Here is the input.
Amino acid sequence: MGRILLVFRLVLADVRRHPAQAAMLLVSITAATATLALGLSLNGATETLYRQTRDATAGPDVVALSPGTKRTTITALKSLEHAPGVVAHSGPYRQYYTTLTARGSTGAAVVQVADMTPGPVDRPLVTSGSWVRPGGAVVERGFATAMGVGVGDHVNVAGRSLPVVGIAVTAAHSVYPWAPLIGPGGGPSDGGGLVWLAERDTRALESADVPVTSFINLKLRDPDAAGALNLRDPAVASAFEDTWVNFKTWRHIAEQDLVALQSSQPILVIGSWLLGLLAIGGVATLMAGRAAKQTRQVGLLKAVGATPGLIAAVLFAEYLTLALLADALGLTIARLAAPAVIDPTASMITTAPGLTGGTIAVTTVVALAVAALTTSGPTLRALRTGTVSALADVAHRPRHRAWLNRLSALLPTPLLLGLRLIARRPGRAVLHGCNMMTTLIAVTALLLVYAQPVKGYPGSPMATEAQVAQERHVLLAVTAAMIALAVVNTITITWTTALEARPAMAVARTLGATPGQVTAGLSAAQLLPTLPGVVSGIPLGVILFSDAKMVMPPAWWLLTAALVPLLATAALTALPARVAARRSVAQTLSAEAT
Here is the structure.
């Protein structure tokens, strides 16, 4: 117990001495684990939400739809009540293909005739307000969200203004904007939202210009055998000799709900790995900056009799503990954000399923791996250092090459100082270049997505917006997280380099370098690795995420994407570099001497 308490106290003291570094580790790993958890949680999540909605609303196992309202059509649909395996039904009902206008926006809609008291199959769950009554409309929640309407607002249907008396969800129709299930005449649908009206309120829609479809909701004894219901059964075959019917099973409706998420999962999973690479780069920089202090800490522990095992526990415990805390934060963020990602249209019950054990295990392993990969090298080097050498902390004598000195002497002073800093820490420069390349790959993917022409529903701009918004919003969120992490990494690298370079910069100032030249040199040490990252990131993004059919973004978009990181790096490095350059030469050299 004494050893555990000692390790805890040493870790707590180290975190207190370096709060900014601990925060950097938390932010980096939290962003990676949250994105990865969201990506993994999409597996089967939509079907789970659909099942929850289906159970809560007595959703049908099969919806049978047939164009028109002829007597033969209604008779044929009613004959399905007696088909083998059918245990309950609701309908037949009618749905009219029209438009709905609200708040200055118009969207395609299907208006369904609703019973005042829903039948045994398909009982929509009212989430706000009340159910249908004469003179009032109930709007499906996904459609209401897209149109920006709520209870008490007025909508215009078929030239008639009606108050919205309720908002509801159902499992008998696909999520917005696929509510029609089939289009007019049984053809493809242009998409649209769902509205319920009382029978007398739909009479204004009875016109030759307004297409209509009849349908019936069926409950089967064996829901998994929904696909086996067909017209070849003798009990129903005769009724459908002259009537066309289309069966939509609950599985088809659930699969259609998944369409909105097909592009989100790869974006989140790939984005999480890219964020993980950025996290590794940032944490590795922190570890390199703390290597000298860590070596001295190891020397002190060895001097007081600490065993190698205890020293390793102290060094690893801090980062592994912070990694586990970051993993917990990431999982919490993913749990809170899951409903918006899994159900972007708000058309289903938004009680998102909890994170699975597999998701938790994968994110935990990733978090610990990021911490272990970035801390194992400096930790092992510190453990192998002798006690006297660790306490002395003698600076390594740089190698001098005459030809290189003669060549570098021709360079301007800021560039010379920047190149010398890069030469002292080439690995850090490579990490910074890789960070920038990774970020530019994501930015290029975002530009490619936004450059593609929108191919949606010509009859409903709102449906088109809902179709493309999910992919773009998720990609934008992941890219924004990567940019934020790249900014933090750039500031961290600059500040770490400035702290390590204080003696060298102080000597340069004694030899005539001005504070402005020192500041420019520190900035150049970050700008120079940024250049190859920018030059390689954009082409790699184009190669990885484009194909022959894609429309390339305008050249000025890509040029802007290349220039902004360079300008941002210069701006982000200016302040830390300036602060480090303004420190007194005497103070710096005196501190080194002591």
